[in-house]
Design goal:
The protein is an alpha+beta fold. The chain folds into 2 domains: about 45 residues, no CATH class; about 120 residues, Periplasmic binding protein-like II (D-Maltodextrin-Binding Protein, domain 2, 3-Layer(aba) Sandwich), CATH 3.40.190.10. The protein is built from 7 helices and 6 strands; from the N terminus they run αααβαβββαααββ. The longest helix is centred in the first third of the chain and has 18 residues.
């Protein structure tokens, strides 16, 4: 390992890299500064808590007859295109605007950003074709509402699910932050 690093960072290799970067119009020290900056950012991100990188769990009441759903079906529910899944009437619950989990959810489910979702709901409200789902205060509120009411569906971090609700689907986050 030590010999590989010494070869990689040998004086000859560094001078060759500098010369190549000059050909592309990039200053050597500017390049090194960017490398150091990227390294520091990567290192600092490794110390952040994992909450924004957790997967998203689609949840319903644990007594619900639903056991499996697809991402397409959940997307249709949250976009007010349907209000039923497998014959079961469901009402979606949303997280507050600006919540990173909400942004990740809509990015994963619909491939739409927060601004695109705002435009989508504005258009549906204006035309009278739909209204956005009610908004809960927090993930704990989503879990409490769903655990008490049979016909609600929502989403939380997989780490927050506990045993009060049933997880129907798990989605990886696309990390919009």
């Amino acid at each position: 390992m030590k010999t590989e690093l010494s070869i990689l960072f040998s004086r000859k290799n560094l001078f060759q890299l500098r010369d190549r970067l000059r050909c592309y119009g990039i200053g050597f020290y500017c390049f090194l500064n960017h490398c150091i900056l990227i390294g520091l950012v990567t290192l600092s991100l490794s110390f952040l808590p994992n909450t924004s990188f957790a997967d998203i769990a689609i949840i319903v009441n644990k007594d619900s007859s639903l056991s499996v759903v697809t991402a397409k079906e959940v997307s249709a529910l949250f976009l007010a295109k349907t209000n039923r899944l497998n014959g079961t009437s469901l009402k979606p619950i949303d997280m507050p605007n600006g919540n990173s989990l909400r942004n990740d959810f809509y990015l994963s489910m619909t491939k739409k950003s927060a601004m695109q979702m705002k435009a989508y709901w504005s258009r549906l409200i204006f035309t009278g074709k739909g209204i956005p789902p009610p908004v809960a205060e927090s993930a704990e509120d989503v879990i409490d509402i769903i655990s008490e009411e049979l016909n609600y569906i929502g989403y939380v971090n997989t780490e927050d699910t506990g045993n009060k609700v049933k997880v129907l689907l798990t989605l990886p986050t696309l990390n919009s932050d």
